[in-house]
Structures are given as structure tokens and as C-alpha cells.
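It would be a great kindness if you could assist me with a short task in structural biology. A protein sequence and the C-alpha cells that stand for its backbone fold form the material at issue. I should value your view on which stretches of the chain appear to form regular backbone elements. The record follows directly beneath this note.
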Amino acid sequence: MPDVLPAAVALTGSGLCLAGHVPGPVRRWGPHATALAVTLLMVGGPGPYPLLMGAAVTAGMCLFTRGPVAADLAVMAVVTAAMARLAQGRHDHHTGGHGLFALAVVLWLLARAGAVMQRALRPGAPCVGTRGGIGGIGGAMMALGMAAMLA
């Protein structure tokens, strides 16, 4: 049962990210659909090579987005690559995965803060704050749920 909760949170977050961007062009919701597919792949635990492919595709999606969405996808790519390493049986028994969880959360927070600061420092663009609504909540749920899957 403890493994089900992080997976459910990550899948719900990925779905909320997608739902927040669906009414629009593919370039806005395509990366979120990819994130949902990779999250499903992580929950299924197919082995290291599909997970590495998912990490590569997720990292590639960062090229088509910017701001907090790119930050979420970049951290997701790192977490997916870490899951591939765990699928190969290279788990750190001394920390029990808590070190990877903490690293993923810190990376996500730093990436999100960097996206907000970059937007604030951009000349001529008004600083509106972070992306809010369903997409912002979904991004937080996705990142934290996927990080918890590492622990």
C-alpha cells in the first residue's frame, strides 16, 4: 500500500497538468501528455531501458517549453533516470532512498525558483508570479509524487 500512494499522487498531478492545458494547440499540451505517458511508464516498472528512453523524451520536451513547465519536465527527466538506475538494482541501502527523494525535491524547488526569477528579470515582461490554477497544483503533485516513488 505505501507504494500506491506516491504513484497515485504522481499520476493525478500529471493528469491535472494535462487538464490545465488541453484546450489549446498541441505545443501547449503535448509535453504534458508526454509527462503523463512517462509517469504511467514509471508506475509500471518495465525495466531500465524504457525508463531511460522516457527520461530522454522528457528531457527533449524541455526544448519545446519554457518557464515552470520546463522546470517540471527537467526534474521529471532526472527522476525518471534515477528510477531507471533503481530498476537495475543499484539502490543505496544506507539511505533507503531518502537521499534521492530529498535531491529530487530540492532540484524541483530550485528549478521552479529559477523559472520565476528568470521571468521576473526579463525586461519588458510583467512579473505575474508562478503559474497557478490546476496546472500549478498538478506540477507540484507530479514532482512530489515522483520524488516519493524514489524513497
Q: What stands out?
A: DSSP finds six helices and no strands in the chain. The mean pLDDT is 77. The CA atoms of residues 88 and 131 lie 36 Å apart.
